[in-house]
Write a structure and sequence with these properties.
By secondary structure, this protein is α+β, with helices and mostly antiparallel strands. Helix content is 40%, strand content 19%. Strands 1-2-5-3-4-6 form a six-stranded antiparallel sheet. It has two domains: 134 residues, Immunoglobulin-like; 104 residues, Arc Repressor Mutant, subunit A (Orthogonal Bundle), CATH 1.10.10. Helix 2 packs antiparallel against helix 3 and helix 4 packs across helix 6. It is globular. The chain is built from ten helices and six strands.
Length: 268
């Protein structure tokens, strides 16, 4: 049986000892806009640095650590936690944030904004409400805020969601193949991604391959790295290692060792 996915959290087997993470599904009327809500609580005697791989999406974060609107990021997210704290986040579907702003999502890429800078007084109000209420009521405030914005999942939003879901679930390695699967040309897919997702289709395909590799490296013994590179659609093992290290900061074997996984069949 496949283990519970780590959702991009690096070193997922050890992370639960450092913070408490919960995920919550959105209400049905927001399911095409929001992927899920997540809450994190921590109480640490020693500082902890938690890294997370980027997804092609926007997050809204409220709480004691880096609150704001976080656009799609090219680099892994690094959270430096210490003492006590909490956050509640909204992870949007790949195209789900587009109905909430009057600009292509590419303009938000690799940027963070104060919630009030994007949503004005309503942004200020939801932050105040979430901070003032008990933990079990925080997501309800966020959902009420999102409903007040009256988001509409357009055909373009749904197409962007579908394209990214395909890239995540299936072994697609070429942009032309992904474009054909949703009935667009390559240029049309690139325009759709710039407008609704914020990063390119090529970026999405490559990042999900790294996600899959990191998942296996963190949880699986006796990995044949050359075979894994082939399975993920890489031209050769060297390209796989270079891509992995650029995103994770370590080679696959180094990352596996840091996660406590030993016994890889080949050095990578």
């Amino acid at each position: 049986m496949r283990p519970e996915p780590s959702h991009g959290i690096l070193d997922p087997l050890h992370a639960p000892a450092r913070f408490a993470l919960e995920r919550h599904a959105p209400a049905a009327d927001l399911a095409e806009i929001v992927d899920h809500y997540w809450t994190v609580r921590w109480n640490l005697d020693e500082p902890h640095q938690q890294e997370t791989l980027p997804f092609p999406c926007v997050h809204i974060v409220i709480g004691t650590h880096r609150p704001g609107v976080h656009g799609p990021a090219a680099a892994r997210f690094v959270a430096r936690l210490h003492g006590q704290g909490w956050v509640v986040g909204s992870k949007f579907r790949p195209g789900g944030f587009r109905p909430l702003v009057d600009a292509p999502i590419a303009e938000l890429a690799d940027r963070e904004f104060a919630i009030a800078a994007v949503f004005g007084e309503r942004g200020d109000a939801v932050e105040r409400a979430v901070h003032a209420d008990a933990a079990e009521n925080r997501i309800a405030h966020v959902e009420a805020f999102l409903r007040s914005l009256a988001p509409v999942a357009t055909a373009e939003v749904l197409a962007a969601n579908r394209a990214v879901d395909l890239a995540r679930r299936e072994p697609i390695v070429r942009v032309a193949e992904l474009a054909g699967r949703i009935g667009l040309g390559v240029r049309g897919l690139e325009r759709l991604f710039r407008d609704c997702v914020g990063v390119s289709p090529k970026w999405v395909i490559r990042r999900f391959r790294v996600h899959e590799a990191a998942e296996r490296a963190a949880r699986t013994c006796a990995i044949d790295w050359a075979r894994l590179a082939h399975d993920l659609g890489y031209y050769d093992q060297a390209h796989f290692i270079r891509d992995f290290k650029a995103q994770i900061g370590r080679t696959p074997a180094e990352y596996a060792a840091a996660c406590g996984i030993a016994g890889a069949k080949r050095r990578a």
